[in-house]
TrEMBL record:
This is Uncharacterized protein. It comes from the Bacteria. Residues 39-62 are annotated as: Disordered. It comes from Saccharothrix ecbatanensis.
């Protein structure tokens, strides 16, 4: 998931978060907020993974 996708997901989730809060369902809103925070925190780790980490070593190293 790239930076742009994470941002779009966060905006969508935050829009949903305000709609949930308007309905007074604060427990779900808190869980959604925690999930967004965790997703955003994980995004840089996913971005920093190299192709070597993802698909393994080049042929000559196998």
């Amino acid at each position: 998931m790239n930076d742009s996708q994470v941002r779009r997901l966060a905006v969508s989730a935050l829009t949903g978060l305000s709609q949930v809060e308007v309905r007074g369902v604060t427990t779900r809103a808190a869980r959604l907020d925690e999930a967004i925070t965790e997703l955003v925190d994980q995004a840089p780790e996913q971005q920093s993974a190299s192709a070597h980490d993802t698909i393994g070593p080049p042929e000559e190293e196998r």
